[in-house]
Write a structure and sequence with these properties.
- The structure is a single chain.
- With 841 residues, the protein is of the alpha+beta class.
- Among the domains are: 89 residues, no CATH class; 147 residues, YVTN repeat-like/Quinoprotein amine dehydrogenase (Methylamine Dehydrogenase, Chain H, 7 Propeller), CATH 2.130.10.10.
- It is built from 15 helices and 37 strands.
- The strands form 10 sheets. The protein has a 5-stranded mixed beta sheet with strand order 6-7-8-9-13, with no helix packed on it.
- Strand 22 and strand 23 form a beta hairpin.
Amino acid sequence: MRMAPKRQRRSKSASRRKEKGQPPGVHPLALTSATQELFECRADEDVTRESPYKLLRKYAIIQDIKTRAAVSDFSPMEQIVLDYAEEEILLVFDKDSTYGQNFYLDLTAEAKHRLTKPQDSELFEDEMRRTPETKKSTSLITEKEIEQESVKEREKLRLKFSRVQVEIGTTVTLSDYNVADSKHNYVEFPSYQDNRSFIRVMQRDCGIQAVSRLRSDATQTAWKLKKNDFTQYSPRELSQEEKEAILQSESLKNFTMSVTPRVLLALQQQEIADVFVDDFEALGSAAEAGDLPGQTSDLLVLHQGFTDKMHTKDRKISSINWHPTIPGVIAVALTTKKGEESMESAVFGSQPSFIVFYSFSFPTNSQLLLRSPGDILCFEFCPSNPNIIAGGCINGQVVLWDISAYVTCLQGSQPSGTHSSDNKETFNFDEKKVGTPTVDFCAMSDVKATHKARITDIHWLLPSVQVSVAGVPVENTSNISVQIVTCGLDGTIMFWDLRVPTMPEQPLAGTMQDQKTTGTSWSVPQPFTHLRSTWRPLFKIDFSGEHVPVKFSMDLCTCQRNTVKEFSETLPDYSQLRIPPANEMKVLEDVNTKFYTGTEDGEIIYSDWKLGKDESGQQYSPKPLFCVGAHLMMVNTVQRSPFFQDIILTTGPLHFAIWKDGVTEGPLVKSQWSGDECTVGCWSLSRPAVFFIGKANGCLEVWNLLESSIKPVHVQTHVTSSRITCLKPWAVSLKKHFLAVTNDLGVLRIFEILRTLYHPSKNEISRMEKYFDMEKNYLKFWREKEKLWSKEKKVAEEPKQKKVEPSRSAKSVCTAEEEELKRYNDFKMLEESILKEIGLW
């Protein structure tokens, strides 16, 4: 039943070939470009007019028909290909479309013979190009069938409707009439299935989708009520008589005599060699063996964990710093979480926040608290006096603390916040605890002359440098750090001086009034009485609202290496220091005043804070030397390398980048998007090629540029259970290094860095210098190539621009813009009218 229609189609196709004059065995075929590329028979490339032949495997054609079905170009020739006896079929490229298509299949017996003898190709082409003779057409159906199928005009019917003669002229009354009330007034012809004629559906287009079977199920577990409980026990001891009986027993004497030789032998071996030493670690680390990846699974080992449930509840850690002189003491700044911040936190004294000090000696309690009027987003220890701490508040004010009176608390042998009990046998639940010492701030900037938005970064200037009122770097003869640099979200960077001004300023009445209204009383220590209510910025850099700085890095700022430093026994008294007059200051000409800034929009700005002068002599803030949108969102880290002062690491949510001073073409190194948000980054203190990147998923990446600049050499998973907020390394000694990691749950964790990460490889500094120089040269070469390509592109486009008609002048462009504006206004009016009609305007 299925083959009969195919034989009919073959007969029809044969008749068509006869009508067109095609030789028997030749079948025209249209091949698309996709099919040509699949069978490697591309027109004018694989087959040409001179070499038009291509042998195709019969099996490949059949597979294409099965795979692509009706889409295949060989589907019309399916039965012809199946009936062909040979394994290879000759495909001929018809350049002139002699038979109506671009290809044809030659299934004649002489096809392969003609291919094996190329000398007869010209005769074959002449024979194929010969004009076919006309033949008389033969009808395949009878004339009677044609007569039956033809449409003829049938005889027209004539109908006449008339009214009864009696009713002619009478009045007509019309009324509604329901046809369904009477079955005799209409005839219904419902549709029904005719069993005599049935059309079988041979092909149907339908779509299917395979989905996994779903099953709904439920389970129930028995829930037990949880409750807090405690127990107290005391050890059960033997009586004195039982102890004496055991000591005098023969079994104990025999046991002692049997194990004594073995114990003595073990003690002797321990004195000769350490039996607990790790021999594999003593053989050498991977860093010494050529800076290859280490074999340790975890390069960071958890050393200590800190948390204060009283002060860290619903808060996150925004900044972290190690104490410069007291080993094992670390301070963290706590801020409210992003979703819980309110305007009240920016008001003086409404919601106090704290900087918490922890110590390795007493990890269960906080050792010291620094109270502030609002959340502290950043803080730093003074490099000249570690007892002075400067912080940036959420309301834009700069806050100072003096912890000179509480140094013994941090160095004490007994932890703060606890009280020793004489009863050591049982717990004393009625014992009163002594609270953690709290230190109030000793100075705060004037609220009317400070940042108008939150302070996001703060740094101390070097002790040997200071900045004048005009923003010029001058020499600091006192060799004491007296100036602070801050940046805020109001688009400004401010310089602050802790010394007494030459002409003391009068306190503002508004500030004193604000103090009275807030109801807060705070005592200012003697060193900072001159800053009370009169502390204003010395110099300000304003980005004029174009950029919002978040993080910055200056060459004159202290590079905190977090090592134990030597400080003089006599700490400076800031109340005795004075700002020298401008004529006594020595200008430093060789000081680098350029700095990097990361903005809220992910831009990296390289600018100079020195004020320029125009032709009239007036000073103005210079424009940035370059501005690059390196990070798509807010920059969270801008940090200089402790080994190279001209190398800067910046991190954003998507990737990190490494920059070099003076290179304006772009970053030397830029990472790819790894799928996880980068939250913070920091350099290693002992290896120039190593730095750490914190992630939002709690993982920590360790990068080594000498090994790979594409992927990290190690990824430490599950460092924290939430988003990493801060990273701070610290070197206790040459063989002891720690890394502090904080998260947005207020938890601080200290990890010990293994030898592979802190022990530098051979000539690592010189190798890194060569690496940065190579990246710099490559970047410049790439930028020159881009400029060359752009020039070539412009030269290639110039002839096209010359061909443009001269009628396109500036006037026509203006006319087109006016027409577009008119259309837009008409559209807005139409939109307004429609919204008014439907009541939405």
